[in-house]
Amino acid sequence: MTEQNKTTTIPLPVPGKDMDSIMQSLESGVEELFTSNRYQEFLKTMAKFHNYSFNNTMLIAMQRPDATLVTSYKNWQSMGRQVMKGEKGITIIAPAPYKKMKEKEVLDENQRPIMGSDGKPKTEQVEVTVPHFKAVTVFDIAQTSGEPIQTLAPELLTAAVQDFDSFMQAIQKISPVPIRFDEIDDNANGYYHNADKEIVIKKGLSESQTLKTAIHETVHAKLHDREIMESLGVEKDRLTKEVEAESVAYCVCSSFGLDTSDYSFPYIAGWSSSREMKEMKASMDVIRKTAGEMIDQLTEELEIILEEKQKTELHDKYGILVDALEAAGYRYDYRESEPGHIVLAPDGTHEIAGYLQFESWGDIKDWLEDTIAEGTDISERVDRALYPFKFDYTLEEEMFRGNGDRYAIYHVDEDTPGKQHLFMNMAMVKEDGITIDAANYKCVYSGRLHENEKLDDLYAVFNDNPPADYKAHSMSVSDVIITNRGGDMQAYYVDRFGFAELPDFAVQREKILDIVPEIENVDYENDLTCISFYAAECAEFPVMGEVHYDLTLPEALEAYEKIPSERMHGLKCVGFDLKDGSDYEGMQSLMIEGKIQKEFLNSIPGFRENSYVQNAISRVEKYLEERHPNVENPLESNKKVDNEKNISKEKNEKELNIQMKPIPKKKRGEMSL
Question: Which are the contacts of 134, defined by CB distance < 8 A and separation ≥ 6?
Fold first, then answer.
C-alpha cells in the first residue's frame, strides 16, 4: 500500500479497552450505522468477516472498514510477516474464560440432595468455567509486510463467478426450493411463493440482475418461509424481511465481486428508528449468519462445479494421458497446476511417493513410457490405458485365463433384477430367498493380487485408499470379489461383517465372458513368418513419406497413431504383408484413416478363410472401438477405397511429382522417408 492511499485505524468513540467502554462504543456505532450512509460499508465488512461475531464485525467496521484479513501481532510473525512501525491496532473482543472452585450440592441418582449427619445437604468443591471476555488487539494485513499470503478467492473460484451458468447452478444447488423463470406482470424481478414452495425469476433480466434476484429470493426461502417462521415462533413485518433479504444479498454479492453499485438502503433509518437495540442486533446477527452460510455454501458448490468442468475439458484434451496417469496412481491437481507447472497428487496407495511435478504434457508422456518400461503391475495398467489396442483381453479376462495372481471387484448392476439385494447383507438375502447371480453384476475393477494380500486388505484399500483409476463407490455390502491365486478361483460376497463364499459365482462369470482358447493356438502376436504389418503415410503407395515395415499389429497401430493425418502424401493406413505361400501373398491395406476394410477383405476367399487375416480384422475392430469410438461407420466398400486411391494418386502425381519405386525390404521397425 502506497503512502498516498494508506489508511489509518479510526479510534473508537469511547476511549478505553475495558469491556464497559467497548460496549458503549458498540452502542454508539450501531446507532450511527442506521442513521448515516455507512450501512453498506458495514455490510462489505460483514461479507469479509462473516465468521466473526456481530460485535467484532461492528468493531472492525468502525475502526478499519477496508480491512481484509486480521490477526494478532504474534500470529503475523508466525506467518512470516511483521507489523509495520507506527501502525495502530484494531480492538476486538476475545473470549477469556477462567476456572474457579465452587461449592456444589451432592445429588443422588434421582438428582435429589444427599443429606449429611447434621441434617444439611452435603456439598463438595467442584471446578467450573466462568465465561469471560477481554479486549485484544489485532492488525490488518495491510498494516504488515513480509511473506505473501493468499487472501483473495482462488483463480478457479473467480473464473466460476464470471461464468453465469456456473454461478446460477451453484445458487440452485443451495436454494431450499426449485428456481424457475417465467413472465412476471408487475415491476418485481422475482418472488418466493410460500404455497408452491418455489422461486420465480422474471425472464429477460440481465445476467447480473438474475443472479442478484436469485440470491435475494433464496434468502426469503431460507428465512421467511411461513412454516419455518411459525415453527420457530418468529414474527417479522414486511420491511424487516426486505431488510434482511437485501442485506444478505448485498453481502453475498460483495463477497464474490458482483456489481453492487445499484444497491441502496434508503429505508434503513426508518426501519431502525422504530426498534429496540436488542431487536436490531438480532436482525443483524441473522443477516451475518445467513450471509456467512450462503458464502461458504456457494464457495463449496462453485469449486465443485468448476473442478468438474475442468475435468471434462482436461479429459477432452488429454483424455488418454489422464487415464494413464490415474492408472499409474496419480491424479491431476486442479488447484495447484497452472500452465508450465503441472502437479500430480498420489492416490492412497502411492502416498509414500509424494507429489510429482512436470513442465508439460510431453514430459508426462515420457514419464508414462518409462513407467511402462519398468515392467511392474502398474506398468501393465499404464500400457493398457495408453495403448489399449495392444491387448486382446480385459484385466478381468486375464484373471480367468490364469495370467498371474489377480482379483476382480463386482458391483450390482442396477439395471438388472440384482438391484433388489443392493447393499443387503447375506442373512437378509437368504431370508428373502434371493439367488446371487453373476449376470446381475458388472466388473468395476481388476488388478494384480500381491503376495499375502487378503480380502480384508482389499476391503481396506477400496474404502480408505482407492486407486486413482477406481471410479466406483467404496467397497460395500453386496459387492463380490473374485480371486485367482495359483489357479485357485474363489468368489466372496462382501457381508456386513466379513465375507461369504459364493461357490457358483466364478463359474457363472466365466461362462458370461465365454473364455475360449486361441484359434489353433497360433501366436499371432509374434509369428512374423506368416504375416507382418506396416504403417504408412500413404495407403495407395506405402513407399512414400513415413513408412514402418515388418511390425507386429500393436507396433503398427502405435506407429499409425504417431503419423500426422494432415500429411500431403495421402490417407495414412495400417496394412498387412501375407507370407503364407498362397496366391494371396503380398501387401494389403487393413485400415485406412481410421476405417477398417472389412467388407472388401471378406469379399476375397483367400482373406476370408485365412485365420491370420481374420484375427487381424477382429483386433483392429476392437482397437477402433476403444481408441476411436466416435469414428463413423467403417469404409467397407471397395469402390470407396478405389476412389480414395485415385484421388490420392492424382494429388501425389500433380503436386509432389514423386516417381514410384518398388517397396524396399526394411528391417523391423525401420522408417523410410
Answer: 19, 93, 94, 96
Close Cβ partners of 215 (under 8 Å, ≥ 6 residues apart)? 171, 248, 249, 252, 253, 294
pLDDT of the residue at 653: 38
The strand ranges marked E within 542-632 are 547-551, 573-578, 586-592, 595-596
Render pLDDT for 55-71 as a digit per residue (tens, 0 to 9): 899 899 999 988 988 99
Of 274 and 44, the structure prediction assigns the larger pLDDT to 44
CA distance 500 to 482: 12
Three cell numbers at 525? Answer: 502376436
Backbone angles phi, psi at 643, to 5 degrees: -60, -45
Nearest to 275 by CA among 286, 264, 284: 284
Averaged confidence pLDDT in the chain: 84
pLDDT surpasses 60 at 215: yes
- Compute the distance between CA of residue 166 and CA of residue 175 in angstroms, rounded to an integer: 14
Contacts of 135 (CB under 8 A, 6+ apart): 17, 18, 19, 22, 91, 92, 93, 94
User: Where along the chain do its domains lie?
Assistant: 19-96+134-146, 98-131, 155-303, 328-389, 392-516, 521-672
Give the side-chain half-sphere CA count within 13 A for 475.
28
- CA pair distance 429, 435, nearest whole angstrom: 8
The CA distance from 33 to 275, in Å, is: 14
Asked whether residue 336 carries a pLDDT value surpassing 70, the answer given is: yes
Give residues with Cβ within 8 angstroms of 618, minimum separation 6: none
Ramachandran class of 653: left when φ > 0, alpha when ψ lies in -120 to 50, beta otherwise: alpha
Q: Is the pLDDT of residue 258 over 90?
A: no
Overall size of the chain counted in residues: 673
Strand partners, 126: 102
CA separation, residue 34 to residues 63, 274, 490 (Å): 17, 11, 75
Determine the 3-state secondary structure of 377 from DSSP: helix
The beta strand positions in 172-224, using DSSP E, are 179-182, 190-193, 198-202
Give the rounded percent of residues in the chain with a pLDDT score beyond 70.
88
Q: Mean pLDDT across the stretch 245-272?
A: 86
**Type and span of the H or E element at 23:** helix 19-35
Residue-wise pLDDT for 399-432, tens only, equals 998 888 999 999 999 999 999 999 999 999 999 9
Sequence letter at residue 568: M
Rounded distance between C-alpha atoms, residue 482 and residue 399, angstroms: 9
- Cell numbers that stand for 171 in this block: 445458487
Would the CA dihedral through 637, 639, 641, 644 be positive or negative?
negative
Q: Are 478 and 493 in contact (CB under 8 A)?
A: yes
Where are the strands (E) in 342-497, listed by range?
A: 342-346, 356-358, 406-412, 441-448, 480-485, 488-494
Report the percentage of the chain scoring pLDDT > 90.
Answer: 44
